[in-house]
Design a protein that fits this description.
alpha/beta, 4-stranded antiparallel sheet, 10 helices, binds adenosine-5'-diphosphate, binds magnesium ion
Length: 326
Amino acid sequence: MSELVFDDVSVRYGSRRHALTAVAGAHLTVPSGQVVGLVGESGSGKSTLARAAVGLAPLARGRILLDGTDVRALPRRHRPLQMVFQDPYASLDPRMTVGASIAEALPRARDRGRADRRTEVARLLDQVNLDPDRASMLPGQLSGGQRQRVAVARALAGRPQVVIADEITSALDVSVQGAVLNLMRDVQRRLRLSMLFISHNLAVVRHLSDHIAVMYLGAIVEAGPTEQVLADPQHPYTRDLLAAVPRRTSAWDIATEPALDTAEPADPHHPPTGCAYHPRCPAGPLAHAGRDVCRTTDPAVAAATRPHRAACHFALPKEPREDGSS
Ligand SMILES: Nc1ncnc2c1ncn2[C@@H]1O[C@H](COP(=O)(O)OP(=O)(O)O)[C@@H](O)[C@H]1O
Ligand SMILES: [Mg+2]
């Protein structure tokens, strides 16, 4: 079991006039053996944060630590950190059999013979509920859901302690999404993995996640235990995401004001001043006279003083604890 910590992480793409800050000062912890669901609309920087953890995006600032060790110091091959991507076509070589793809990801062991590798591949296929006979097939002969299971098996072959799953059901038919989500939950529990589970869809992450983190325009604007965030969302953007989820139960009961639809979509090349959400915010200056603080002051600065570290000036303050600690 391992803890993954994003400590004040910023990622910039491009340079000078075309520079874009895709992630800005993100703090996030994936506790050992737990699932953190990361949600936010497309372009909010979720994949960039994930890619930074596996060395695929450059850090402009901050550190990413696995049990206290900078991930940049981890061995390149067979990192204890593995990622599963949205598109299994992109992560599987179409000319390689399923078995060869998985075997390639097994840690190198000099004493491991072919029979041994075959047994290990069969075990991994079984772990993702695929028949070991599939080992001889090519990715093109499998369904989308089966291919994604193979991608998961390949990630597990590296014996990771932490798995980052980035929109892994987004490209799948709705009919198979649930099965892949259940598989991830089973595998996570059985292997006691720490997992960062990313989706633009809150409905997808909430059943799987112990904690939820919400991202908007490169910043984590709210994070906390799943039930607490769902029952008592502090950031207007979180409330907006929740309002988009069909309510099967009345787990939360909030008067949700929709985001202002007159507003321009977020443009990471020209982030708004103050609170990045203010041009769309139903609790902000466009809807409430006198809330100019949203235009002038970054709410992230005092986030630690609010429940769920909410980056909103108008989130409630944290209730003081009786012992005086915070
Ligand atoms: N390689 C890249 N070069 C330049 N800009 C990028 C690159 N990858 C992503 N971006 C930009 O960074 C921002 C965040 O993107 P991304 O991390 O993919 O968000 P998400 O996964 O939440 O949709 C977007 O504005 C996107 O256009
Ligand atoms: Mg993405």
